[in-house]
Amino acid sequence: MKAQYVFENMRFERGQDPKSSMGIGKRALIKKWFDDLNVSPNKYTIDDKLNIFFKGSLYLEHSRITSLPDNLSVKGSLYLGDTPITSLPNNLSVGGLLNLSGTQITSLPDNLLVKGSLSLRNTLITFLPDNLSVGGDLDLSNTPITSLPDNLKVIGHLYLIDTKITSLPDNLKIGGEILKDF
């Protein structure tokens, strides 16, 4: 039997790791995620540790988005209202508003950072992580949440209209007004 050899010509881009050049691996999956959303590559960067930095606001409302990549940092606002998303990724950081209104979200990750307002209006949220800090308003209107976590800090207003919350924690810190119907 005569030996047969197969030769393949593989091209790699200079300065990139082979997985990225071949379009495989986590970096390639992140790029594909943005490509599927028709987001220009000049709107984001991915560092060597696969941290993702989005340079402006990311508008995904009314889309079919079901997940976000881990280690996503959005400099502006992140609009996810009325999407089928059910959970947020680890290490999500949002510099402006995080709008989750009308989603199927039931909880938030412990390491969520929101420098602007957080809207959870009309969601299925049942609890918030301890030590949550919101740099603007926190809107929990029309949610099934029954209590607020320890050490909650809200720089703006706290909206509790049409919730099942009947008491507030002693260590709650609010910069604005508490709007409630109880």
Give structural attributes.
elongated; 5-stranded mixed beta sheet; 182 residues; single chain; 7-stranded parallel beta sheet; mainly beta; 2 helices
Which helices and strands, and how do they pair?
Blueprint: H1 18-22, H2 26-36, E1 44-46, E2 52-54, E3 58-59, E4 72-74, E5 78-79, E6 93-94, E7 98-99, E8 113-114, E9 118-119, E10 133-134, E11 138-139, E12 153-154, E13 158-159, E14 173-174, E15 178-179
Parallel strand pairs: 2-4, 3-5, 4-6, 5-7, 6-8, 7-9, 9-11, 10-12, 11-13, 12-14, 13-15
Antiparallel strand pairs: 1-2
**Looking at the structure, what is the overall shape?**
elongated
The CATH topology name reads Leucine-rich repeat, LRR (right-handed beta-alpha superhelix)
* CATH level-two architecture: Alpha-Beta Horseshoe
Tell me the strand percentage band.
15-25%
The H/E string reads HHEEEEEEEEEEEEEEE
Derived structural class: mainly beta
| Radius of gyration, whole Å | 21 Å
Number of helices: 2
Q: In whole angstroms, how far apart are the ends?
A: 86 Å
Give, in spatial order, the strands making up the sheet with the most strands: 3-5-7-9-11-13-15
